[in-house]
Amino acid sequence: MSKYKITIIIFIFTALYVNAFGQSNNYFFEVQKTGEGAQAMIFIPGFACSGEVWNETITKFESEYTCYSLTMAGFSGVKPQINSSFNNWATSIADFIKDNNIDKPIIVGHSMGGVLALAIASDYPNLIDKIIVVDGLPCLSAIMNPSFKSNENNDCSSVVNQITTMSDEQFYQLQKMSIPQLLTDTAIQEKVVSWSVKSDRKTIAEMFCDFSNTDLREKIQNIKCPSLILLEASFINIKTNIEDQYKNLKTAHLQYANKGLHFIMYDDKEWYFTQINNFLATQ
What we know:
The chain is an alpha/beta fold. 42% of the residues lie in helices and 14% in strands. 38% of the residues are buried. Mean pLDDT is 92; it is low at 1-24.
């Protein structure tokens, strides 16, 4: 067989592989697909979490929807990638939707995953059917400083150095101390800690720094799709700040949980599923 024919065969095989698997190696995440519904739901976990955080939610919806659960690069044991950034991650998820011809999916995101949903719906307003944001804010830093402005030349080196130079035990103890401030369900706390511990430290530091510098308060005015915003119970105490952050999202439907902390899907399950079911039932 000539070298020319071999080259052609390799080219065709590669093209078929890329087409069949949606260029999966180029995305900033790993994905698990379940269900065979006509419409898709894409689930984006929060900071340093596994897509497993959505397991119980997906169980409720996979009989009616095709569900894609993401775990971002560098988080919970997934191989880290260079050039990870908030904007690159949002673009990568949008590319995945387009490359795989996923028609008008519903995006569900927790924490930073919810803000990624806001970013995607802002940049690609005709790509998404609905978004569900679980305890995510357009600008996290604006909780403490409503006049916050993003730094165009944000330097993350000190944060990276601080996180990456910790010993494994120091980092574990930090996570073990932090997670109970975000999650009341003690049965789940150790699992969430394990996801953080399995995450790449450099990715954690860089993404935390980048996310803290993200401000979507103006950009969300571009969102056209219905938007359910589920917020932790304590945010009712800073309702003015929260509503100010979301004032440009004209399609927003803000709801405050009755109890629990940041992981609403664990801490206030009945309320959480009621809100989602009601939202999905609306046209």
